[in-house]
């Protein structure tokens, strides 16, 4: 019974490390609702740590008349190859990490909508302190990604990239009235890699055995 209590206490102690956590997050801040409609925008995401990618959250907005529009949303993530610019600008040295399509997404007009895409099926490992390139490409030209304030987890610079227009300043860099237009809205959530989970489980099994094998001090 004592060993069972010790196992329970050990597993309770490691449980927080098993939870998903954000290694990059600009979605938790506010937004001015600004975007670059009709263009595919790529932003640099400097993550704080690594892990197994579980979900990619992002934000989109739409212009037009009516209640909403429908669009496919192509979500892409790549690891920078070392030159600090996305593939189309340096000839292609980046390493693709994730690519998936959210088909037939309904995007309300005139507001910012946050969406989430499951990435756990792809078993993508995000390296520690990596520089990533992320984008959401809509099939409907009236849909675009929304800009948010500076990330609360991770970091980014004051520019974004477009395959059409090259390097662009974020809206907030040229307009002091825009306090929340510094980064595309993204959140990358990860969980510990399988190897880390195995170590934690093995630790939970070995610890009570070691405790049981220790000689007990004589009382008296």
Could you say what the CATH architecture is?
A: Sandwich
**Total discrete domains:** 1
The residue-averaged pLDDT reads 85
Which percent bin holds the helix content? 10-25%
Number of strands: 14
Q: Quick one: overall form? A: globular
Structural class: alpha+beta
DSSP strand (E) fraction?
Answer: 35-45%
What is the name of the CATH topology? Jelly Rolls
Gyration radius, in Å: 22 Å
Strand-and-helix sequence, N→C? Answer: HEEEEHEEEEEEEEHEEH
Overall CATH class: Mainly Beta
Q: Largest beta sheet, briefly?
A: 6 strands, antiparallel
Which regions are unreliable across 5 or more consecutive residues at pLDDT < 50?
7-18, 196-206
Explained architecture:
Strand 11 and strand 12 form a beta hairpin. The chain contains 4 helices and 14 strands. The model is unreliable at 7-18 and 196-206 (pLDDT under 50). Helix 1 packs antiparallel against helix 4. The protein has a single domain, classed as Jelly Rolls (Sandwich), CATH 2.60.120. It has 220 residues and is α+β, with helices and mostly antiparallel strands. The protein starts with a helix and ends in a 7-residue tail after the last helix. Strands 1, 3, 6, 7, 9 and 14 form a 6-stranded antiparallel beta sheet that branches. Strands 2-8-4-5 form a 4-stranded antiparallel beta sheet, with no helix packed on it. The chain has helices at residues 2-18, 87-90, 171-174, 194-213; strands spanning 21-25, 42-46, 51-62, 68-79, 95-108, 112-118, 125-126, 131-138, 143-145, 147-148, 159-162, 166-169, 183-184, 186-191.
